[in-house]
Protein 1
Amino acid sequence: MKEKILFCGYRDWSLEIFRSFSGLCITSDKEFLLAKSPKDLQDSLSSNEIQTILFIGWSWIIEDDIIDNYNCICLHPSPLPKYRGGSPVQHQILNDEEESAVTLFVMDDKVDHGPILWQQFFNLDGSLDKIFKCISSLGTVGLLDILSRYKRTGDFGWGEEQDHSKATYYKRRNPEESEIRLQDFQECSAKEIYNKIRALQNPYPNAFIRCKDGRKLYLTEACYV
C-alpha cells in the first residue's frame, strides 16, 4: 500500500511548491494529497490512512490531537527561532532585514517552536513576487531533502532543537496597519516607506493613503533609488 502524505496549503506560492514537489517526487510508494482548507484537512484525515502532514502556507489553528497523532511538518518563511508567529515576511521587510530563510520544522504544541529539520537562507531584496518565487524554489528543495532523509531513517527525530533564548514573536498584521499617514512621510525615510509598500504588495492588504474625501489611494508598487 502506498504511503499517503497530506500537503496542506492554499497560498499561490505554497501551491507552486505542491506542484513542483509532487511532480519531482513521483515514486511508486507514495501518494500526495492536497488540502486547501480546514474542511479538506478533516475530510482527508477521516477517509485516508495518513502518517505525515505538510503544512506549507497554512493560516488556521491546528488542533493538538492532529499534532500529537501525525508527523506534522511546517514551513515557516523566517530564520527561526526569529520571527515566530504571524506575517513573518512582512515583518522582516518592515524591519529592513537583508535576508530571511525557509525553515522546515517538526510541529509541537507551541507556535513555530519545534526542532528544525532544514533551513536555507535567501536575500530579501526585490518585490514580494520575487521573494515568494524564492520561497517556492527553496521549499521544494527542502521538502525533497527531508523526505529523502525520512525514508532512510524512518522518522523525523534528527531535527535540531531551536535556541529558544533567541526567539522573537510577531502578531499577524491587520488591514488597517497598511495605512501610510502624512506623519509617516515626515518621520520615515524613503527606504522605510518603500519597504512598507513592497511588504504589502498583492495578495496582502496593500499600503494606502487616506485622502481628504475619505477614499483610499492604494500604493502597489514603488521604486527606491
Note: The chain has a mean pLDDT of 93.
Protein 2
Amino acid sequence: MPRAARQPRTAAFTELQAAANSVNENKDCAVKAVAIACNADYHTVRDMMNQMGRKTGKGTEWSIINDTIDRLGYDKVKVDPATIIAKYPKGHRDVLKSVTTHHPDRFRDVWADGKTYLMYTRGHVLTIVNGVNHDWTRGTAHRCYWLWEIVQR
C-alpha cells in the first residue's frame, strides 16, 4: 500500500494551535481534541482540565478527558473499528486489520457520516468530524487503539 500523502492541517486545528501557543502550551492534544469534539473554547477546556489535575506540558489522564467530556454535556459511545473497516471498499476491507489516522482522507465516503469521533492512538488523542481529521496526524498512519463517537446529550 502506498504511503499516505501528507495533508494540510485544518483551520480549526490551526486556530487551536494558535491558542495553545498564546499560553506557551504543549502536549495538549487532549485539550484540542475535546475542544473540537465538544464545540468548546480551547481556554475553557484547558482551564477545566487543569482544575481536574491536568499538568501544563504533560499528557492528560483518560479520567480527566472523560470527566471533561461529561461536564461539557457530551457522552462517549465505544465504536468497534471493525465496523468502520467493514464499510471500506472490497479490496481494502478484506486486508486491513486496523484503522489509522489517514483513513478518513483515504475513505472519505465511509467517514463522512456526520459523526464526531475521538480516536486514541499510542500516547495521543485526536478528533475526526464528519470525516475530517482535525489534528497534526492528518495524512499519517497512526494506528487507532480506541475509537469513540461523541454525542451531545
Note: The chain has a mean pLDDT of 92.
